Give the backbone structure.
Amino acid sequence: GVIFEPMGLHEKALEYYKRALSINIKAGDNYSIAYSLGAIGNLFEKNSRLDSALIYHFKSMSIRKNIDDKQGLSYSLLNIGRVQNLLGNTDTAQYYFEQSLNGFENLGDKWGMASVTNLLGGLFLKIGRANSAENYLLRSLQSWRNSGSSTRNDMKLLHGDCLEELKKLDADSIDSIVT
């Protein structure tokens, strides 16, 4: 699945994710089952099959709670929040994002904190709460900087996303904040 998905071969990726899920179920590997369910949920999200995405993310979240996988649980909560946001359920999305953020903060996971605060900033921007949006987007940038890993491509993308969102809020002062 992880080979075919980036190539845009989503049906092939789904086939392999489901094969992996089946193998993991037979092996009784709950950690890998939860991972496979999350991967399928993410793929459904990419294909705008949001109701299906939620089903898989909730299943993944439930397993992660049961096996006490705190980091995985935080990512499941983030994924559910992201899908809820796409569905227009901003209050529900905010709830899941905040639960995810709490988990990442408890773990000291700077990259997770950067990701979810970026999503919260975008959510607040979407609903017209500019001050909250700016607060979360600045927190995201700070977490990104504190993560100590500036070479990851996804962090560069996150940094760019934060800058773009912040520019929507206050183009004049943004350069002094982020440089």
